[in-house]
Amino acid sequence: MKSPSLLRLAAVFFAGLFTLQAARPFLCCDYNSGKVCSVSAEGKIEWEFACKAPQDCWRLPNGNYLFCFVSGALEVTPAKQIVWEYKAPEKVEVHSCQPLPDGRVLIVEGGTSRIIEVDRAGKIAKEIKLVTTPTVVTHNQYRGTRKARNGHYFVCFKGEGKIVELDGDGRVLRSIHVPGDPHAVVPLPDGHLLVTCGDGHKAIELDAKEKVVWELNENDLPGNPLRLMAGCQRLPNGNTVFANYLGHGHVGEQPQFVEVTRDKKVVWQFRDDARFKTINQVQLLDIPGDVTQGEILR
For the chain, which residues make up each domain, given as ranges? Predict the structure, then answer.
């Protein structure tokens, strides 16, 4: 009889997980498949919810799932009951959401060009207008947006190739031009910013003086080129998980996300061509911390 460990390894292999260390459970958005999924360490989809073009997702401390998609955002229980909802205006695109400590949800909207904080009743409790170049179409205006612990907002101006920091009242503090079209910005505890550069095919870490102190370039991972760099998560051990969005002609060619060390070694990667197409955001579910308190760095 085969040992449980051998059976588990076989199950992991046939599920499409190719690992260099133990596999991990995660939550993800699959943009082109139109779904948000929670996946076990063994590669089993344990929870799935259909929505159009999901872009950002979180598992909350209460076990519910918060995510945004092209026309709004939802909080959904494991039993798939919708307990909170925000519907965006027509001709608006939502590409980022974040649970906040006071129970509100931060959302960025292209079209209306604004950051909003939505309360538990689904009402807008705070609004900050954003100003972008008029020629940038709605779909390309904004991507990842985060509120830091100090109350400042960091916004990816995708179409302008920059990260903008605003204070709590919406005043622009600085504008940082980055390579490509930024898709994610993560404020780190040491004052650094972790940025994924979309079709710039790279990720960078900037210090407080905007100097690049670490970067991952298109061909730094042998046999696993960076495509459109989308969502990311910085782990407590210093590693980073990057969602390598495989749209634009690369579906089914390589792993859909990777975990990379500071010295650019892949320690874990995920690939399941049968069930996923274009994963663009990931949250590892075995990392301790409260996402509403900014303890998980995404």
Answer: 4-293
Chain segment 59-109, per-residue pLDDT in tens: 999 999 999 999 999 999 999 999 999 999 999 999 999 999 999 999 999
Q: Kindly report the CA angle at 29 between 7 and 126, in degrees rounded to 5?
A: 140
Which residue in this structure is represented by tokens 């991972």? 221
Distance, in Å, from the CA atom of 77 to the CA atom of 100, rounded to the nearest integer, reads 18
Q: Are 267 and 19 in contact (CB under 8 A)?
A: no
Enumerate the β-bridge partners of residue 84. Answer: 75
Q: Rounded to an integer, what distance in angstroms lies between the CA atom of residue 255 and that of residue 273?
A: 9
Compute, in degrees rounded to 10, the torsion defined by CA atoms 256, 262, 263, 269.
Answer: -20
CATH number of 4-293: 2.120.10.30
What digits encode the pLDDT tens for the residues 208-253?
999 999 999 999 999 899 999 999 999 999 999 999 999 999 999 9
Query: What CA–CA distances, in Å, run from 275 to 26, 70, 224?
Result: 15, 21, 20
Cβ count near 249 (within 10 Å): 7
Global pTM reads 0.92
